[in-house]
Amino acid sequence: MSERTGQPSHTSLYEENIAKEKFALIVRFGYVAMSVHLTNASPSQTMTATQFQRLPDREAAIRKLERIAADNLHNTLRILRYNQAEQIFLYRLSSKLIPLQTHELLADWDPYAALEQPLRELGEYGRQHRFRLSFHPDHFTVFSTPRQDVLMKSQQDLERHVSLFERMGLDERYKCNIHIGGTYGDKVAASDRFIQRILQLPERLRMRLTLENDDKTFTAKETLDTAHALGLPMVLDLHHHAVNHQGEHAVDLWADIQQTWSNEAVRLNQLEDELLAPKIHISSPKSEKEKRAHADYVEVDPFLEFARAIAPFTPRLDVMIEAKRKDAALFQLMQDLSTVDGISRINGAALEMFS
DNA sequence: ACCTGTCAAGTCTGG
DNA sequence: CCAGACTTGACAGGT
Fold it and tell me: How far apart (Å, rounded) are the C-alpha atoms in residues A313 and A23?
């Protein structure tokens, strides 16, 4: 293996997988939060703090928040049923399922009292159909921050996401993906601070994390080093890598990135579990000028080039599509890929590449 | 029914 | 030091 690819050698588990898959790469695709095909199915409906305060009856206002949250959970279940019908097994949950959950106006509100049942139902459906569900707390979750107040809020927001997983009955295989954060003029100090902060987190939060390279600050290589230091899996974003790297090639980092997922599978004693297959993000630049912004759809070629290059030493890959047109972009990409030589479609959103 | 402005968050840049 | 850009989907309020 290592002679063949020039990559570092791999575990015996890895060799077994390769033998079993006969050098075929199985790729599954998914999309983020909302479907553009389903109507009136937003999982992210909300209420502004201003509106909440404007309502004279606070109890009634809270009931309204709970109705919005229940509706978001119901819409998420509708989306999962749709995903099941379309055979899409990768899906990122909305971070806005429960509006104003961490707002200081609602510090005394326990939203779970009213939402326990729908959350459990959602998690059960997800487990039953083997969906790979994830969260991506937004970019205001910054553990590299030097500010204590920002750190507190970041931990609070991560806690909120992990609690949702727990209330859904979804164990540590279900992950919250985050970025490292800002540099504040000193990248080394910032990543050191990040590492120390993550090490100080309660284990139930720390072990939910995956780390993703970002488009401005921490490159894939730097994120991989940080993931190694913390023993966390890494999600490689190919678009971010394309606009933020120091000359290194994603394919050359891949063996080590893949290894972070094998390590996690070993840690959780879930060696063959597809929930812990290595995962990447793909998206395409909106335009020449707006290289970082996401386009409506995803171009085939950059993904195809990467997938072909890693196929000889990768049995399985999960791909999250980050495109404005969400599931429509997924279907378009599947169609574009299905006409390519050496690729056969397994089902709605999974395919097999032979090498 | 549609359109425009606003809302949240934290970081970073430009003035 | 402060204002504005960045990002995102959806609300809020106007026509």
Answer: 7
